[in-house]
Structure formats: C-alpha cells, structure tokens
Amino acid sequence: MSNELTLWEPAETDIIPTAATTVGQITKCAVQLSQRDQRQIVRALEARDFEIGVNYLWVKAMAALKRELGTLGIEFLGEMLGRPDVDERDDVHDLLTDKDAVRLAEELGMVSATEALRLRQTQELIAHFAKSEFADPNNIPTEMDDAEAVRALRACIKNILGKPRIEVAHRFVEFRDALLTKPLSETDTSVELLTKSPYFFRKLSVSILLSAIKTATGAGLEIALGNINTVLPVLWDKVRDTEKWQVGHTYAEVYASGMASAMQGLKQALLKVRGFDYVPENLRSDTFVKAADAIIKAHEGIDNFYTELSPVRNLGRLGTVIPAPALASCTSALLAVALGNTYGASFTAAPAAKQLLTKYTKDRWEYYINQCLPGDIRILSKLDSLGPRKRWKDLVQTRQLNSCAIKHSVAKRLIDASAANNDEGLMRAQRRLVQDYYGKRSATTPAALP
To answer: Which of 82, 173, 298, 312 is deepest in the core (most CB within 10 A)?
Structure first.
C-alpha cells in the first residue's frame, strides 16, 4: 500500500482525433449527444450563432456531468461540499451549481487540473457574453468569435460529452465506506495514513464522520462515534479552526435535537481534545453561513454581476461582527464577489463586498489568512486569472495585510508577494498552497482504507 493518500488523475485519451478540425468533425465525437443535438449545435455554430450553440452545448455537458456525479450518492457529494443538510432525496441538478460540478470533477479525478481550468474558462466565457453591461463603449455589443466557440466545443467534448461514461474515481467511495463500516484503532495503518495525507483528505474524513453522526442509527452510528473518537484526537492538531468549528457546531446540533447517543459520543471526542471552546453558544452563526451560501449561489450563477448585490446587502444587515464559526464562509463569499472573474467584477456588488471587508479588524484578517486561506480553494483558484489577481493585490495593499502576524509560512509568502506586486512569487505560493491542500498528484487512485 502507498504510504500516502493521493488524488487520482485520469489518463489522457484521444477523444478528439487530430484530424478532426471542423465543427462538424469535432461534434461527431460527442458520443453522449443524440444526432439531433449534434445537428443543432453544428447548425448554430456554422451559422455563427456562437452564443446560442455554446450555451446549448454547455447545458448538455453539465447535465451529463452532474448525472455521473450523482452516481456517487447525494450525501457523499454533500459531504464534499460541506453541506450536511442534504440527503439522497435531493436532486443532483438542484444541489450542484455548474462550478460545484466542475470542482468536484477535478477533486474526484474525473478531469485533470488543466482541463478543469478550461471548463471554468468556458463557463466564464458564457456568463460574460450573457451580460449586456459588457457592451462596447460605442454601444456596439461584443460577440463571441469562432475561435472561442471552438475552444468551448473542444473542452466540453474532450472532458465530458466525448466519453460514453465519465470515469469516476470510485476509490473515493470506498474510502468513505471504510470510515463508516470498519471500527478503527489508533494503531491502524489507515489512521496513520490519514495523518500523513493531504489536507483535503483530513477535512473530508472529519466531514464524513460528522455527517454520519447526525444521520446514522444503530450499528452505523456506533461505528461513526467510535471512529470520531479515534480519528479526532489524532487529527485535531492537523486540522484548522474551520473544521474544529464544524465539530463544535455538530455537537450543538445533536444536543439541540435530543440525540442522546450522538451527543454523548461526540462529547467524549471533544473532551479528549479539549475542544469545547469550539461549541457555539447559540446558532446565530447559522444565519451568517446561510447568507454567505446565498452570495456564493449568486456568484456562481448566470448573470451573477446583477444578482450578487442583494445577498451581499443581506449579509451586511445581519450585524457588524461576523461570528467566528461563520467567518471562513462569509470572508470567502465576500472575497469571491470583490475579486470577480476573468471578465471583471460587479459594478455594484463588488464595492459593497469591499465595504464589508473594510470593517475587518487586523485580528480577523490574521485568522482568515492563517486558518482559512490555505484551504480556500475558491479564492486560491481565482488567482490563476489576471483580473482577479490584480484585484487581490489591490486589496492586500489597501488593507496592508502584509503587516498582519502571519504564522503560516506559505500564506505569508503569498501575502508578501501580493503586497510587493510580485506576480511570480505570488503564483509560486498559490501553487504550493493548492498542492499542499490536495497533495502530490499521481497517476494512481487514492488508496482505500484497509
């Protein structure tokens, strides 16, 4: 067995032959599309109705991707998204935004990191041309060109529609099932494996066990409680405050619901790590987390530059001080709006988000940078794009974040490089944070717990 859990990446395959150069030839490779769908896409693109054709293509691609993700189980997807409120009765198409689907596909090894980037660029391209506010200064509407349309066509077919079935790393499901079906001890190889694994797996393990504690009964609950008591003491110093608050919040939930067995088992685990400081005195933080979720939903949806303002204002109305358990979610949501995407940031929502961020004290920024930013993949991914990266540097420089006491060495390098306007150093630090979160990429599947 490997001595480390690693993310799996699919082997590159020639979905689209080199000889396929025309729209018609490329579209024929989309084996998941009916001949009728293929004809409609080709007809639209050859008629230079690029926005219509690419939009139709994207809808079909996302439907296929979400359908395949759904085979892993809705609860499992909810755990990966940090959404313990979902269950198998939820529809995968309602649960996942398009950005969620692409991110999960990357994390599960269904597409490579490079191809995931191309899919995100396709979505941003579609969203950009759907916005009338990006008209030419002379009131001449901008239009998608043929090169952009062909790139989008290739990305969707190569990664999704050109495969009879999108290959999922089902070892991830085995990893989850092992946590929930096999009692673990501190001496188990699998527990030692977790401590040496990328942060992604540590975070996921905690989420999986907490979700089971809230929903399982009988033997399933006993195993989950036993394993959280084994795993949590080992991982406590290796997870950040975001996950610690998640444990405390779960304890508050089961206590309020009168779930005696779950409450007692989780209480024992918290006592072992002296973790009761992370149990919220009330569930006020829930309101802030839900407000942050609404911002992200708007940000990752169509016409986000128009729809972001209302949920940002709603967050601002909740109070001047964000509860500590909700700080990670709220900061990530506000930064997402403030940084925008490749095509810009909302003229109305971005200033409102920045205004809320100006109210942060230095200790709040220190908490986010040290405890949250190293695992905030949403924000780290934005730094790949020139526009969001420039807005990030402006924010760091304006708020003088380099004067914060930053204990996380790589996060400090990122902030210092941002303050110095050093793009090369910034991107080196960003890549290191992402690599540390996911672990070293390899061509093998993650080893399941024995």
So the answer is: 312
Domain that holds residue 29: 23-161
> In 3D, which of 104, 106, 108, 102 has the Cα closest to residue 123?
102
- Distance (Å, rounded) from C-alpha 403 to C-alpha 191? 38
In tens, the pLDDT along 302-315 reads: 888 889 999 999 99
Q: How far is CA 113 from the centre of its chain?
A: 13
Distance CA(172)–CA(5), nearest Å, equals 10
Q: What predicted TM-score, i.e. pTM, was given to this entire model? A: 0.70
What tokens appear for 292 in the block?
């942050």
| pLDDT tens-digit readout, 394-421 | 999 999 999 999 999 999 999 999 999 9
Tokens of 304: 């986000």
For the record, the structure tokens of 337 come out as 């709006």
Q: Which of 113, 131, 161 is the last residue of a domain?
A: 161
Mean pLDDT on 86-101: 85
Same domain for 302 and 270? Answer: no
Least Cα distance to 184 among 229, 227, 221 occurs for 227
